Amino acid sequence: MNCQKFQETLPYIIESGGGGEDDSHLLECESCASLVQDLRYIAEQAKLLLPMHDPNPRVWNNIEQSLHREGLLPEGRMSPPGHTQKNSTSQTQAKSWTPLGWVMAITALIIFAALLINYKPKSLQQTTLSAQNSAADSTQFNSDDQQLISQLSQQSPEAQRAYEASLRDVNAYIADAEQAAKSDPSDASAQELLQNAYEQKEMVYQMATARSLP
Amino acid sequence: MTFNTATRALLVTASLAICFSAAHAADSRKEARIDIAPGGTVNIVSGGGAIALHSGAGHQLLVSYTVHSAKIEVDQSSSDNKQRVELLTHALPGEKPTADEAKVDYDVTVPAGVSVNVSTTSAPITADGISSDIELSSETGQITVHNIAKSHVHVRSVTAPVTLQNVTMSRVDIQSTGGAVQLKNVNGQRLAAGTTSGNIDYEGDCSGGGSYILTTHSGAINVTLPATASVDLTARSTTGAVENDFPLQQKPHISFVPQQGRSFAGTSNSGSSSVELQSFSGKIRVKKQ
Fold it and tell me: Would the CB atoms of A162 and B280 count as touching at under 8 Å?
């Protein structure tokens, strides 16, 4: 069984506990095992939401009286289960299903169902990739570059964008040329590329700093 | 009160003239004749607008410029010995002109033998027929150079496209990070064009026994040569493709081991000019005109 097939049967697994092929896949696949663990945790937490305790009876009474005063509620319409008798015991009230409890329970179930339906393993990978990209972005510019871009941003957003793109390209050029030069130090062509890359960066700095002058 | 047709026409014309004048009230055109010594240099610094350079006779610069807002002015200054003339565009103190308000259009006629340095942010620069050294720099404005001989042409751009046509017997240095470089009939002692991501197109015969070096990181290099071109040519790309449709004779000795699809070398005719094409990942293509 692969991950895709396994995830298609996730609702059944969570509901019934799975077994057979599902269990063997869980033993092999760390990602799916982690997912099932998370979903089971959510399910456990959702169950805790169900036996909601009622608010104090006085709250309901006040609401009911207010609605009557406003003429928004016909007589006898409001009282929820457990509240038809004002003298019902607190024990009965504690175990009753109030509208608030129902709403919370249904919300929890909807969230849980939505998680099951919409879960895609790629999203985890994408999150990881985007985190890596963000890390790469932050290392694309050294402190001098960042200072230059910051200065340009105060002058003109267009200039900032142009120089930012240029610096990104030039830094990639330098990185590639350095790698080529390192892999074959005797390659004169790689050395020339590296020199050209640094000249490009020098030019970008010269032009950017020249425009910074008053 | 009634008007006849002629009166109505006059009123309409007058109204239009008033509207036109009001709309262009901020435009201010000035002309100046500035003495400059033979071999002198004129420096022009501007933001937006356009800059046109022409060649002229005599010993005076003919400068015409149009300022598009009252927030901008042009300072003219000369050194005592008339060797250096400065035309500096700047905002008036306390003013923060918009990009449109900061535009100044220059038209400068340059005497023979006078060097020109132009630095702009977004203004396109055109230099036509200048018979002296020119150094042009623009971040985003197109740079165009035509009809120049026996000069040193130095061009720098960030993303501005660069076009040189009919630049002969000259030394040419071009650097651009993202701008495309187009070279047509450009030859001389040395031509060096380097980009980071901009493409480089060369069409010409690489004559003059000079050194032609075109280098890029990820841009493409396209070279079109006539059959009469006398070149000693090498093309190398680290990871990009290399194609050759130009008839070259194999060289007995080359400084590297050619790799199929990544590099080649050869000569045509007597191989008088050296041509080096180099990229990291950009495609290199050499073809016959």
Answer: no
